Amino acid sequence: MENWKKRRSTKKIGKQGERDFPASEEERNTVTYGELFLVAVGLSMDAFAAALCKGLCLRKVTFKQARTVGLFFGGFQGLMPLIGWLLGRQFAGYIETYDHWIALLLLGFIGGKMLYDGIKKQEEAIACQRFISLKELTLLAVATSIDALVVGVTFAFLHTPIVPAISMIGITTLVLSIAGVYIGKAFGGKYQKKAEMVGGLVLVGLGIKIFVEHMFF
Fold first, then answer.
1. Beta-ladder partners of 191
2. What pLDDT digit, counting tens, does each position of 86-122 carry?
3. What are the residues whose beta carbons fall under 8 Å from the beta carbon of 142, sequence distance 6 or more?
4. Is the dihedral angle over the CA atoms 67, 73, 74, 75 positive or is it negative?
5. Per-residue model confidence as pLDDT tens digits over 172-213
C-alpha cells in the first residue's frame, strides 16, 4: 500500500518544506486528447458502417433522417463508456499495477475483432427497411456501442477525464454517422468493411502504444 501511495503521489514545495500530496486525476491521466480523438474515430467505425447500410436502404435521404441516425448512434456511443467508466472505477484501485496490460488486452481484442470482421466477413444481403424505425435504430445503436462500454472500463484504469472522453466519442460518432448515411446513399456499402478495418487498426495501435509507454518510459 505504501509503494502504491508513493507511485501515485507528487511532491510540492510549501512554506513548511517538502510534502507529499496525492496526485490529481489530471496528473495521473495517461491518455492525451489526440489519443482520445483516435479512440473516438476507432469506436465510431462500427456506427459509421451501420449508417452506411442505413443510407443504402433509404429511398430518399433527408437531413432529418440522417440527424436521427446520428443522434441515436452518437448518444449510445457516448453513454456506454460512461457506464463502463463507472463500473471500472470500483476496481481501478486494486489493479493499477496491471492497468497497461488490461488496456492492451481490451483494446487489442476489440480492434482485432473489428479488423477480422472487415477482412473475413462474407458479403451478406442487407434486409432493408426503407424508412427510419426507432426500434431498429435503438437495437443498432446498442449493438454498435458495446465495444465503447469496454473501452470505458479502460478509461477508469488509465484515469482518463471522462467528460471530455465521452463528449469527444459522442460528437465524433454523431458527425461520422450523419456523413455515413449520405455516403451510403451515394456509394452503397463499398466502404463498410474498410471502415471497420481502419477502426480496428486504430484501437490495436493505441493499445500497443499505451502498453509500450507504461513498460519502457
1. none
2. 988 887 666 666 767 877 787 788 778 777 777 775 4
3. 76
4. positive
5. 999 999 999 998 888 755 666 777 777 778 778 877 876 787
Element at 189 (helix H, strand E): none
Give the separation between CA 29 and CA 8, rounded to whole angstroms: 11
DSSP assignment letter at 130: S
Q: Let me know the angle formed at the C-alpha of 192 by 189 and 198, rounded to the nearest 5 degrees.
A: 155
Q: What is the pLDDT of residues 162-173, one digit of tens each?
A: 999 999 999 999
Q: What are the domain boundaries of the chain?
A: 31-216
Contact status, residue 83 vs residue 192, Cβ threshold 8 Å = no
3-state secondary structure of 122: coil
Residue identified by cell 489526440 is: 34
Say if CB 173 and CB 73 are below 8 A apart. Answer: yes
pLDDT digits (tens, 9 = 90+) for 56-69: 778 788 899 999 99
pTM: 0.69
Closest CA to 182 of 88, 70, 46: 70
Residue of 136, 132, 145, 153 lying closest to 75 (CA atoms): 145
Query: In what helix (H) or strand (E) does residue 200 lie, and over which residues does it extend?
Result: helix 192-216
Q: Report yes or no: 118 and 197 within 8 Å, Cβ to Cβ.
A: yes
